[in-house]
Input
Amino acid sequence: MKIAIIGAGAMGSLFAWQLVKTGAEVVALDQWAEHVQAMQRDGLIVECAGHDLHVPLTATNSPKEIGTCDIILFFVKYGQTTDAAQWIAPLVGPETLLVTLQNGVGNADRIAEVHPDNAIAYGLTTLTSEMLGPGRIEASFAGKGETYFWRRGGQPDSREEYLKDLLNAGDYAAELDPDIDLRIWKKLVINCCFNTICGLLDCTVGETMHDPETARIFDALIAELSAVAAAKGIGITPAAARSYLEEVGRDAASHVPSMAIDLRAGRQTEIECLNGAILREGARLAIPTPTHALIYNLIRAREQISSRR
Ligand code: NAD
Output
């Protein structure tokens, strides 16, 4: 089976690395010319536990070169998903499965505006990675995380099974899970709380865990998120969400979330598919979400200030 990764940045490259390790046919498709050229010249370089691993990876920025694929894995940022979904049209045949493991809520909807709904699987990964420069990623936490996915509106088939088995054959624990929305909303708790507050306060996850002020903000965000989730039939209680937040806060204390890094660099964040998604769902379901609105507006303002500097 031929697998294409659309958006071979930090996470796309992290997944490409493990898939290549299993001997699978993998091609990385990315619009960033310098990055693609570096991978074509030197392969992908993965910095892991103080070593540089050189991974031979087929890379291109020309979708027409690739031909029809069996599986296409989306790892662009939320704001790039619609363009990417249109760009990969030459890779999509009647049997192609499109898989999104991107953060937040709404990427699968964007892909479904361009491709058939029943060709999409969606899920999440708790793995992390960082882009260091063209052709180079950092993967110190490789293997420390899980990946889950499921077919949108239906049952997975042999293609999801194949992808899951490949990931497990590499170093990544992967499972097909029918309760995927609960998993996604649990991760949404983490992203809506830690990504935003670390972004606004420019601090690590662990640094948000000590003060009553941040605790009060987390409690308010969690209460609103749980109410929206409950109205959607997703059972995540405030107590369960709080205890998950604390668990991740301990395990990832030194982590600086990508939103903080994006804000430092003056880049757009993924706030739209995180707190922005809670706002939109809250409005649709007539559930007040004032704390998410405040955080959303602060992040948007911060993005604009950073981009003007
Ligand atoms: P990234 O910015 O490192 O990578 C995105 C890549 O997409 C870039 O290389 C960019 O050149 C490319 N791109 C942009 N527009 C494109 C287009 N239209 N077509 C093709 N390629 C395009 O981002 P990332 O950190 O790898 O994040 C990707 C997704 O994974 C996001 O949804 C993010 O939330 C999620 N995620 C990230 C992490 C992490 O640790 N970085 C962890 C879990 C989930």
About this structure: The radius of gyration is 19 Å. The CA atoms of residues 154 and 295 lie 35 Å apart.
